[in-house]
């Protein structure tokens, strides 16, 4: 089943290394037959949160209206997050917080990375709380990528030979949850 799975990336640093990971995840999902738009805060240039999308009452900035349209079609979300000072990057938190109902009843999947050996898992654990509160609980598995600076070769391919096998298992889990919740949303939601 083809799904719509936006990939939300959370860094705006000038020398960001996680963008290669976000692009790879996007392409891997597309190769599986899914619509996977990459939501990059550098391209979308969201304002700092003043009002949520819904609070504009039809007069939202065009960038927010565009994202709301993408999110309304989503069957699930993939969040690609670095770890900044043991936490979530501010650009990602800003990207997430502009919306609420657009996320409801859709699963999320966390891909995390860091320069060190833990692969951003501390940020991933904080994201679980935020994503659950936003109405898009994360699937049980996470996909940590340690040593992001060495994780991909010059050709953009993963340096770790187990990467694709690990990602396949992770993607199958997300697909299962996204298909199940899509079917339940079609029947109606609790409120």
UniProtKB/TrEMBL annotation:
Pfam families per record: FMN_red
* All residue ranges annotated as the NADPH-dependent FMN reductase-like domain in the record: 7-146
- What Gene Ontology terms describe where this protein resides (cellular component)? cytosol
Instruction: Name a GO molecular-function annotation.
Output: oxidoreductase activity
Q: Which InterPro entries match?
A: Flavoprotein-like_sf, FMN_Rdtase-like_dom, NAD(P)H-dep_reductase
Q: Which PANTHER family match?
A: CHROMATE REDUCTASE (PTHR30543), NAD(P)H-DEPENDENT FMN REDUCTASE LOT6 (PTHR30543:SF21)
Name by which UniProt lists this protein = NAD(P)H-dependent oxidoreductase
**What species is this protein from?**
Chenggangzhangella methanolivorans
């Amino acid at each position: 089943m083809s799904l719509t799975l936006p990939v939300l990336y959370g860094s705006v640093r000038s020398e960001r290394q996680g963008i290669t990971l976000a692009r790879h995840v996007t392409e891997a999902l597309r190769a599986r037959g899914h619509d996977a738009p990459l939501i990059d805060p550098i391209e979308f240039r969201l304002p700092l949160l003043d009002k949520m999308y819904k609070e504009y009452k039809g007069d939202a900035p065009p960038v927010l209206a565009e994202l709301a349209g993408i999110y309304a079609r989503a069957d699930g979300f993939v969040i690609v997050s670095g770890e900044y000072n043991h936490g979530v990057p501010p650009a990602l938190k800003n990207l997430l917080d502009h919306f609420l109902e657009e996320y409801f009843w859709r699963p999320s999947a966390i891909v995390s990375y860091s320069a060190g050996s833990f692969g951003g898992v501390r940020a991933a654990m904080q994201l679980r709380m935020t994503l659950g509160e936003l109405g898009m609980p994360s699937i049980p598995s996470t996909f940590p990528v340690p040593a992001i600076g060495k994780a991909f070769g010059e050709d953009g391919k993963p340096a770790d030979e187990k990467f694709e096998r690990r990602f396949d298992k992770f993607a199958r889990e997300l697909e299962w949850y996204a298909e199940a919740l899509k079917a339940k949303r079609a029947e109606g939601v609790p409120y």
